[in-house]
Amino acid sequence: MFARTSAAVFLPQCGQVRSMATLKDITLRLKSIKNIQKITKSMKMVSAAKYSRAERSLKSARVYGTSAMALYEKAEIKAPEDKNKHVIIGVSSDRGLCGAIHSSVAKAIKSEIAKLSGAGKEVMIVNVGDKLRGLLYRTHGKHILINCKEVGRKPPTFTDASVIATELLDSGYEFDQGSIIYNRFRSVISYKTDEKPLFSIDTVASSENMGIYDDIDADVLRNYQEFALVNIIYFGMKESTTSEQSARMTAMDGASKNASEIIEKLTMTFNRTRQAVITKELIEIISGAAALD
Amino acid sequence: MMAARFLLRRAVPALRHARCYADAPAAQMSFTFASPTQVFFKEANVKQIDVPTLTGAFGILPAHVPTLQVLRPGVVTVFNDDGSSAKYFVSSGSVTVNADSSVQLLAEEAVPLDSLDLAVSPCYAVISTQRIIGKLLQAWLCSPLFTLQYIPDFHNNRTQDCLEYNRGLFNEVKSV
Question: Which residues form the signal peptide (chain A) (predicted)?
Answer without folding.
Answer: none
